[in-house]
Amino acid sequence: MRRIDLKEVEDIALGASLLGAGGGGDPYYGKLMAIGAIKECGPVELIGPEEVPDDAVIMPIAMMGAPTVLCEKGTGGNEYRVIYDMVSQYLGKKVYAVMPMEAGGVNSMLPIAAAARLGLPMVDCDGMGRAFPELQMVTFTIGGVNATPMALTDEKGNSVIFNTITNKWTEELARAVTMSCGGSVTVALYIMDGRTMKAYGVKNIVSRSEMLGRAIRNVKNQPDLTPQEAFLKASEGYGLFRGKIVDVLRETNGAFNLGRILLEGIGDFRGKKAEVTFQNENLSVTVDGRICATVPDLICLVDTETFTPVTTEALKYGKRVMVTGLKCYDMWRTQAGLELVGPRYFGLDTDYIPLEERVKGGGSDV
Amino acid sequence: MRRIDLKEVEDIALGASLLGAGGGGDPYYGKLMAIGAIKECGPVELIGPEEVPDDAVIMPIAMMGAPTVLCEKGTGGNEYRVIYDMVSQYLGKKVYAVMPMEAGGVNSMLPIAAAARLGLPMVDCDGMGRAFPELQMVTFTIGGVNATPMALTDEKGNSVIFNTITNKWTEELARAVTMSCGGSVTVALYIMDGRTMKAYGVKNIVSRSEMLGRAIRNVKNQPDLTPQEAFLKASEGYGLFRGKIVDVLRETNGAFNLGRILLEGIGDFRGKKAEVTFQNENLSVTVDGRICATVPDLICLVDTETFTPVTTEALKYGKRVMVTGLKCYDMWRTQAGLELVGPRYFGLDTDYIPLEERVKGGGSDV
């Protein structure tokens, strides 16, 4: 058990924007909410997964909808209490702790705000180890855990509990309510006991996020390492391409931001071209026609000078970025994992080949 | 307490199609469901409102969505059990009885099916005394009762509980889920205690429905009365116009069927013209430019020979109908009632004048 205070929030938010793999929403607004909650209610206790009793009720907290809407519409501040009351009443049992379901992007921050406001600890664990666009894309789905009972509340005080036959139906129904509530809501989903959390969760991901954030902040202060070396070492990342953004094609399809980014190489990559595709999060990167990485591995664009992550919202012509590959959580590499979040699920016509094998082989033909 | 068996179901269904005031959906399909449930599980106990203890939990049952979709999509049979379990778990208390929320149309029948399948009694009471198109249009809204907690389930087994800040928000969110579930679902709403039901409900409306159905079936067997006299006497109705349908204009706007019916007089009404407007239910009737009746009074079209009600779905060129006015429940005539369901709410540019006064004065100018 240790404390998350304002300084830790800054580091976790920075690391979470890297784990967002381009998507998940810029944690900035979420960070303001976490900071506001800690300033009002005091710091949050972060507890290790193993500290949680097997029968304790864990309530993962997230926002559902468009992060861009969240930034404009805001939150009411009372959502966590409303959702806590509804879940406790439904279960007839007290919630022991909150946790993030998505460590990447803005959803890394809301559980911190919730924990502070509810006076509950937060578990150092999530269900993705990154960001993903759909509700059923969590390790707990592989474990057969239901997303429901799921609670949803808006900033006006409306709240809803869903009990669905599949996690795809949860996505469908909760998405409809989210739209009616204005496009961004707070949810508690995959409410589970401690045993389940320990069996399927991505453990210590909040600590990893914090470490990544701290490392990015300190890339220029590492003796014997260039900033790029320091960044790749700390993140255990693969530098797949360095280039200048020369085009960004965007399309909004239903609830998703789709698109592709075209890059022209700089430095060692001069004369080469790369393409990154995304659906909220980055899906694939191809260099001169050879795929270098695909989902579920993390494809992250970072600024070539500061190594701060560049989300899809912040893509701009002329920006110089390094395309970095990070290995995804092992469970995503199993057959069950790839059925949920593999390249074919996202419409890419390629099998999944682990990042490190693609790098070794110099990529594969498209 | 008395029994509702197959014979009673037939009469209630026929009476309910009159109380539907043109809308509420043809009770035919609901009748099949009620009959199926009674054949499988035995007859239903109908209990008087006064027989219900003050603290007993009453669960009103209805379908939400388009009755035309219900007829095609059907139901799964297990909805009542799913909704019962969800409500009981949420309240932490057993449900004592079901009741209809809308005595007109198809929603008159589903609580009978629910009562039979759950082995619970049904209370002889509803919240409308007729049919209305929106969820907040119930006497309980006047009493300040919340529509929520409201439970919703589809035929696949998905279920949802809503807790909203206003009954208009319930309508908004539940409508969105209803659409996602395919356009027709089963709901339990305005779940309340016996005390509230007795204070605001429209009492003995199921018995009235049954009496109306029986009367329609027997209009030709009344000594000293013509069938029309027998019908008007039993229903305490006002014969406002008799005519032939010469045009039907329909428009589907969002979730509603809007339109107008043009009639040319027959018999005593030869040479006159009438117009009936509707939004699911009939809203107003105008004869030669003078309004004869408006919502919330019931405007019902019945066949001139059989006196069976004609719903808006069954309107046909050349059909001969009598336009009949029935007085609405007193509570609808209060200021609070008229704010919810008065003519202006439905976009009619007239104040509400009670049916019997309009008839006495020969209608009012449009």
UniProtKB/TrEMBL annotation, chains A, B:
Pfam families: S-Me-THD_C, S-Me-THD_N. Residues 8-163 form the S-Me-THD N-terminal domain. Residues 166-355 form the S-Me-THD-like C-terminal domain. InterPro entries: S-Me-THD-like_C, S-Me-THD_C_sf, S-Me-THD_N, S-Me-THD_N_sf. This is DUF917 domain-containing protein.
